[in-house]
Amino acid sequence: MRNQKVGSVMTTQVIRAEYGTPFKAVAGLLSEHRVSGLPVVDDDQHVIGVVSETDLMLHQAATPLAYEPPPRFRLARLTPRARRRAAKARARTAGRLMTAPAVSVHAEDTVVEAARTMVEHRVNRLPVLDEDDRLVGIVTRHDLLQTFLRPDAEIREEVIREVLQRGLWLVNGSVEVTVTEGVVTLEGQLERKSEKEIAVAMTRRTDGDVDVVDRLTHRFDDSEFRDDTRVPGGVADDWLRRL
Hints:
Elements: E1 17-18, H1 23-33, E2 37-41, E3 47-52, H2 53-61, H3 80-89, H4 94-97, E4 105-106, H5 111-121, E5 125-129, E6 135-140, H6 141-145, H7 152-167, E7 175-180, E8 183-192, H8 193-204, E9 211-220, H9 234-242
Parallel strand pairs: 1-2, 4-5, 8-9
Antiparallel strand pairs: 2-3, 5-6, 7-8
Helix pairs in contact: 2-3, 7-8
């Protein structure tokens, strides 16, 4: 499968800060460019952290209100998380404000891998690195969602070419493929159950696929011979090992 790479959807003009960038300058960058966070880099453009609006707001949150009684001693203030928040509240530079290490992806990672990283770490944007781990771009949730704007005809063409023809070596017309609003429907009869499973699994990994409707049947259940049976074709061989 030729899944779309992060490098093809990322933004290359990256707003960044350095370790010593002052607090007010960081706030100015976020406001001017209307972003909620930005990477912090060293002299070699390696990402050393990320600073966000939330990091800056800790300074405001720690400012006591007028006539507010002095805070009482609490054990919770001794936790690592509390100490980090307190340090950020006193920070004057991006290096002291930032969250480190930064969660990032590489330009050659797939869009799917980037999406999983975002969801896992609950972030809205990721710095993109090259093969030398230097900053080359930024990718946001909005960028990743662009893959779902692929035309249905383009998705159908890729499923036929990459899944049915290259993956399973099937002749044209043996499986009917229809795509409506990103939902792919596979209908037809295959020789083996393993081929059916591969067809559905590979289709689910097609960029722009919203869902797969499986209406495939099979003539022979080869589940018991999974370790010894291989579908012809290099791509399919690899997929059988994963199932």
